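PROTEIN DESIGN WORKSHEET
SECTION A - STRUCTURE
LENGTH: 201
TOKENS:
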């Protein structure tokens, strides 16, 4: 008799308890966020992560978001959830949660901007006042153009345009004043892990 095999979704070991705790602590639809993360991770080991809850003001309305970055041995998994007002999809307010899994070999850049106060007093290993983490893998490209010129102030010739192109798929700005020093420390630790992982090969 021929043996039958059922092909299904890969078995998941579930999220690491500490990651789940951080998502729950963020307080933004934790069950939903954990579910979409669990699907995207597909049981792969999480080596580092960063949970970033954020509150923004849009047209005098307070909106909450949460972004989770998870680093596995082979991928960077990005999860994002936010609120939506009623629209053609739903007659009542709703939330959406999306994930993107990026192979580490596809990550093109990891840009870190450290902002410190009193830089003349900075000590090695001190936590920055603010950290901006920008990760690019080619999904979103931004081009900034402006009219080109020359050094002659009386020149009226058309010099065309000049500009810059940047790969900027996600940018997170973490401030000790807004999110606390622990959040900045966690962001620095994740950035270090991601930089190390993408430097291999």
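SECTION B - SEQUENCE
RESIDUE ASSIGNMENT:
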């Amino acid at each position: 008799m021929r043996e039958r095999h059922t092909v299904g979704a890969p078995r998941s070991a579930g999220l690491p308890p500490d990651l789940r705790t951080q998502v729950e602590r963020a307080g933004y639809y934790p069950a939903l966020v954990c579910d979409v993360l669990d699907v995207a991770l597909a049981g792969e080991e999480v080596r580092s992560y960063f949970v970033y809850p954020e509150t923004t003001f849009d047209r005098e309305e307070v909106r909450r978001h949460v972004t989770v970055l998870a680093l596995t041995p082979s991928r960077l998994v990005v999860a994002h959830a936010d609120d939506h007002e009623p629209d053609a999809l739903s007659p009542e307010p709703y939330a959406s949660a999306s994930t993107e899994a990026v192979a580490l070999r596809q990550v093109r850049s990891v840009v870190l901007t450290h902002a410190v106060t009193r830089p003349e007093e900075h000590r090695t290993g001190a936590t920055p006042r603010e950290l901006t983490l920008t990760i690019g893998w080619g999904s979103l490209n931004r081009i900034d153009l402006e009219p080109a010129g020359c050094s002659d102030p009386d020149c009226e010739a058309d010099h065309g345009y000049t500009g810059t192109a940047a790969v900027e798929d996600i940018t997170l700005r973490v401030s000790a004043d807004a999110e606390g020093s622990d959040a900045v420390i966690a962001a620095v630790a994740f950035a270090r892990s991601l930089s190390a992982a993408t430097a291999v090969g």
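SECTION C - NOTES
The two ends are 48 Å apart (CA to CA).
The first helix runs from residue 17 to 26.
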